[in-house]
Design goal:
The complex is a heterodimer of chains A (112) and B (116). Helices cover 0% and strands 51% of the residues of chain A. Chain A is mostly beta strands. In chain A, a hairpin with a 2-residue loop joins strand 7 and strand 8. Chain B contains no helices and eleven strands. In chain B, strands 2, 4, 5, 6, 9, 10 and 11 form a seven-stranded mixed sheet that branches. Chain B has a four-stranded antiparallel sheet with strand order 1-3-8-7, with no helix packed on it. In chain B, strand 7 and strand 8 form a beta hairpin. The chains are: A mainly beta (112), B mainly beta (116).
Chain lengths: 112, 116
């Protein structure tokens, strides 16, 4: 079946450091890919998405590129802030469907 | 516009008791979903309603879980009797449609359930 694998957390960075959170997927066909974020005490929020190969999703300084050849959708940010501390979830959705398949989540902690 | 709202936000119950979680989707959203995250694991799909009908309930773990959406508005998820392994965060989500720009899925803040 479909699956999403994320790098284990927690990840601890200093403010202004470069962030990469790895995400790879296994799925048949051409899924859409998503990054969701959960800030402390809040619900899941859609951070960015990409619907086809080579698409780049971006939002709030975060970027991720849909790489079909490596089945990856790594999340990056050039300079993290303390306010980016949250749990980040990579997810996929098969074409035409509404069921999201999530990874286990990666907790990010950014310190001053 | 109000987002997806869930109640209660936190619940602590004893093993064997019953808990009912409620979800109010975004107004006008026909599609409503339940997901669950147990401690440290991935968020897993439970089921999907289209209006009042269950479109897909393949993720429901067992018959101790009952989801309803009478009238196609709010939904409830009842766990009866609750077991220790049911502890986790239960997320509700909704979307307007299933294709195009209306298919973005919006999540609530989650209902945190602890079974002791």
């Amino acid at each position: 079946g479909d699956s999403v694998t994320q790098m284990e957390g927690p990840v601890t960075l200093s403010e202004e450091a470069f962030l990469t959170i790895n995400c790879t997927y296994t799925a048949t066909g051409y899924p859409s890919l998503f990054w969701y974020v959960q800030y402390p005490g809040e619900g899941l929020q859609l951070l960015l998405k990409a619907t086809k190969a080579d698409d780049k999703g971006s939002n709030k300084g975060f970027e991720a590129t849909y790489r079909k050849e490596t089945t990856s959708f790594h999340l990056e940010k050039g300079s993290v802030q303390v306010s980016d501390s949250a749990v980040y979830f990579c997810a996929l959705r098969k074409g035409g469907g509404n069921k999201l398949t999530f990874g286990t989540g990666t907790q990010l902690k950014v310190e001053l | 516009e109000a987002g997806v709202t869930q109640f209660p936000s936190h619940s602590v119950i004893e093993k064997g008791q019953t808990v009912t979680l409620r979800c109010d989707p975004i107004s006008g959203h026909d599609n409503l979903y339940w997901y669950r995250r147990v401690m440290g694991k991935e968020i897993k799909f439970l089921l999907h309603f289209v209006k009042e009908s269950k479109q897909d309930e393949s993720g429901m773990p067992n018959n101790r879980f009952l989801a309803e959406r009478t009238g196609g508005t709010y939904s409830t998820l009842k766990v009866q009797p609750a077991e220790l392994e049911d502890s986790g965060v239960y997320f509700c989500a909704s979307s307007q449609g299933t294709t195009g720009s209306g298919n973005t899925i919006y999540f609530g803040e989650g209902s945190w359930l602890t079974v002791v």
